[in-house]
Amino acid sequence: AIPVRTPVFLHFIPHPLGALRQHHQRVVARVVLLVFHQQLDDARNELAQLTAMVIERISRATAILLDGDLEGANQLIQDDDEMDARSITLEDRCYQLLALQAPVAGDLRQLVGIVKMVGEVERSADLTVNISKSARRIYGHDLDPRMRGLIARMGEQAQQLFTAALESFQENDDAKAAAIDDMDSYLDGLQREVVRVILEKH
Question: Cα 195 vs. chain centroid, distance in angstroms?
Answer without folding.
Answer: 29
